[in-house]
Amino acid sequence: MFFKKYGDFVVGIFYAILGIALIIGAKALPKSKVMEIGPDFMPTLVGVIILVLAGILLVETFSRFKANAAELEASGFKDTSDYKRVLGSLVSAIIYVNILKPVGFIVSTLVYLIIQIYILAPDNKRTKKDLIQYAIIDVVFTVVVYFLFRYGFKIVLPGGILAF
Amino acid sequence: MNALAQLGAAFLGVCQPVSIAFMVAGVAIGIIFGSIPGLSASMAVALMLPLTFTMEASLGMNVLVAVYIGGISGGLISAILLNMPGTASSIATTFDGYPMAQKGEAMRALGIGIVFSFLGSLFSFFVLSFFAPMLADVALKFTPVENFGICFFALTMVAILSSGNMVKGLLAGLFGLVFCFVGMAPIDGTPRFIFGNQDLLAGFNQLTTLIGIFAVADILISAEEMNAKGVQTIPVTKVKGFGFSMKEFISWLPGALRSAVIGTGIGILPGIGGSTSGMLSYVTAKNMSKHPETFGQGEPEGIVATECANNATIGGAMIPLLVLGIPGDGVTAMMLGGFLIHGLSAGPLLFVKNADVVYGIFAACMVCDLIMLVVEWTCIKAFVQVLKVPKHILMPLILVLCAVGAYATNNRVFDVQSIIVFGIVGYIYHKFKLPTTPFVLCFLVGSMTETYLRRGIMSYKSFGAFFTHPIFDFFWFVACGVLIWSVFKEFKAAQQKKTAAKS
Hints:
A: 164 residues, 2 domains, 5 helices, 76% helix, B: 21 helices
């Protein structure tokens, strides 16, 4: 609901702030001494364009806002997205990429994969039998990828606590 | 006629059983490297190079060519099946290939991609064989000014891509440009927007960005409906042959030819590359099409345009490489190294001194292209098996592969972390109905545009002097025309909508 109703507003405001930030950030960059345009030229230009377009978007959205809201109300739209799964996946992925180096590829992937598959699996696919299947896939995949990269492609993935 | 006779003799040389066997192996290895994101064609060539040392010079070069061709075309497999571009060149293949696969047409999409990859590279190899010295002269005429013109032209394509909701489309694209600014500025190396983070100094890697915004975002998007839809596997409709009829094939040919010309043309210019040519050709196809709205929904012509162009870039890129000894990107630089080791002296005297070797390379290119077609076609059935894995298991496996691929590109954990950042960007774009295509196009062309602009101004003192270059003028005014025309069309459509709503 929120995204449909206020989405364009949020986008407009975000870009307006981004444009201003770019212009201010570019001001802090050193000017070029030898050329007409220095490293600050492109960010300033893009910042100005973004600011102008964001302004247009905001004005446009504002002028249509009432009509759109009424239309949305009438259509009876409901957001059925399952944000629990989205958030769970995101958090586990963020943790995974951050422990990859210190803990090592094998251990972190073994843990991450089983958790991620469990989070994504539909409710009726979380029985004990399914879990065993997931665990087998998890182990086989992790080991195969590690050794394929190590010996096939000559790329050593982070070893971490299980270095060999 | 001389060229034809030399080429014929070279074919006989290439088609030895031993050399064919090695080339098949080379193409297969290339395809594997190409289809896994993070393992690039240049890495494949680098790995194979030491193995060719002990081979005979001509055999060694054939193997290198085989790996290169396999590596570029392999990207389409993962792009179509998993929405994860294996190489940056196949980025635009995901736009229509992945929707087709989702509709159950994975085999058809792969068939189309493979056939037109083959035709695209074949076209460019013919151009290479017969017009290389002539075209190399054209490449020399391209100064940073002309290259800036092309980049600017590519950027204005965003306006066409986002017709229908132009303001949001342009904003979506400009955000891609913002990400280009992060890192060292071109020419003078001033650090920009790095916020004290050393890892940001090198900027965001192209491939990790693409993986994040497509594959990782896709995982988050499909997580939304995982429970509601139950166990999901993607259906695969079996097809005969390549999955399209002769009539369709003929109707796609004009578009394919246009794309092949774009691809070869861009390939000749050092430093622009396959990812830009694929995108440009895709946008052109969309713009020329009678039904542009079907692009992005699973339109075969979209695959035709991209695959034809990015493979045609191979032959184009070989022209400055062989004739002038100028490599356009990482892969061709690696190839040049390999050729030099095997005794080829690239440069203006090449066709005089090394004619037999050069025609040997040309023949090897064409034969490898055919091998690529056969190998990939026979393996289509094996490739689509991937789709039989239920989505809730497949998606996490893809994420791990993305992470590994991102790590492999530079051996930095920072790249792995940035795929998640771009995954979030992609998901937010999806939520706020912002198109990702403009973002990708701007991100790919952005830093090039700035580099060429500043390099051009460095050598010609002022922007005004750019206009004395006729090629630049052409691209500049066409780009401005496109921009004005699309804004006008957008404005008119909005007016029509208003009057329709009132009545």
